[in-house]
Amino acid sequence: MKDKLQEITKRAMEQIDAAEEMSALNDVRVAVLGKKGELTAVLKSMKDVKPEDRPAVGQLVNETRSAIEEKLAEAKERMEEAELDHRLKSEVIDVTLPAKKAKIGHLHPNTNVLQEVEDIFVGMGYEVVEGPEVEYDYYNFEALNIPANHPAKDEQDTFYINKDILLRTQTSPVQVRVMEKGKLPIRMIAPGRVFRSDEVDATHSPSFHQIEGMVIDKNITFADLKGTLQEFVKQLFGADTKVKFRPHHFPFTEPSAEMDVSCFKCGGKGCRFCKGEGWIEILGCGMVHPKVLKMSGIDPNEYQGFAFGLGLERITLLKYEIDDMRLLYENDDRFLKQF
């Protein structure tokens, strides 16, 4: 029995010394000290040992177990120290290197201007309303007094999905949907993305954004329209901003007008920014056409209203003095981080 225990000890020590990984040490532990290990088998054979020899044999077995466990612990400690040393060498940190900078994002120029415009109109009691970008032809054209033979409905100008469904060319359909609900009076703006079949250049894009507004109430006049828009541009461009209205034509308003603002760079004197004219065109507007009111279920003899629409990108270009609309969509970090 003593010779067998010595043989088990010698073989275990050699295997422990040869082990290079923790898994090899664990294999030795299981093979020698496990439930089905060699040392456990010796203990189970104690019943065959003479009663008077059992204490001595039991002591030898315990000494063997202790020696193997001690050797395993030393080997494990040695391996852990070697692994730690390797990690310290391979994962060394140079504290003199500059730290990685955390890039903090910010709002896009378009979003900044949109929020500013919304804040101005909300402050005047307007509601911000959104609608679908994929729209029915009826809401985009017919209900806005744009008949079937109107050139704006040409497939070269408008993205049609089928004869009845298209990508909206303006946010005016949102106004029609609100009017149809019949909850009067109405004070609203409708911001959103619109689509037109335009070539991409410095001032055009097939996808851009509009902000359209509308007021429907009793005794609304063109004077209300002028006063509202004048207050709007004063808050947007500065208290000294002046406005000028020029006659125009829109199918859904009558009378209609284009509105210019005095150049906020030169104060109206004329400069390169306003092309020497002293004025900058920014939006179209007018009184809601009686036919449009009637088609939406509103009595034009009792209620009147005005509407206006402006391009968000145009306001952004003016406000930040950007000369190319494409810069807003190219996602060039060198450009966007200036705002």
Descriptive tags:
339 residues, alpha+beta, BirA Bifunctional Protein, domain 2, 2 domains, seven-stranded mixed sheet, 40% helix
Helices, strands, pairings?
Elements lengths: L1 H17 L3 H12 L4 H7 L9 H37 L18 H15 L3 E2 L5 E3 H4 L24 E3 L4 H9 L5 E10 L11 E11 L4 H16 L5 E8 L2 E10 L16 E10 L1 H6 L8 E8 H9 L12 H4 L3
Helix pairs in contact: 1-2, 1-4, 2-4, 5-10
Main location: cytoplasm
Subunit structure: Tetramer of two alpha and two beta subunits.
Subcellular location: Cytoplasm
If helices are DSSP runs of H or I spanning 4 or more residues, what is the number of helices?
11
Fraction in helix: 40-55%
CATH class designation of the largest domain: Alpha Beta
Task: Walk across the major sheet and give the strand order.
Answer: 1-4-5-9-8-7-6
**Domain unit count:** 2
What is the C-alpha radius of gyration, as a whole number of Å?
42 Å
The fraction of residues assigned to DSSP E strands is 15-25%
How far from one another are the termini? 87 Å
- What's the total count of β strands? 9
Mind explaining what this structure looks like?
It catalyses: tRNA(Phe) + L-phenylalanine + ATP = L-phenylalanyl-tRNA(Phe) + AMP + diphosphate + H(+). Its EC number is 6.1.1.20. It is found in: Cytoplasm. With 339 residues, this protein is α+β, with helices and mostly antiparallel strands. It has two domains: 2-90; 109-336, Bira Bifunctional Protein, Domain 2 (BirA Bifunctional Protein, domain 2, 2-Layer Sandwich). Helix content is 40%, strand content 19%. It is built from eleven helices and nine strands. A seven-stranded mixed β-sheet has the order 1-4-5-9-8-7-6, sandwiched between helices. Helix 1 runs antiparallel to helix 2, helix 2 (22-33) runs antiparallel to helix 4 (54-90) and helix 5 (109-123) crosses helix 10 (312-320).
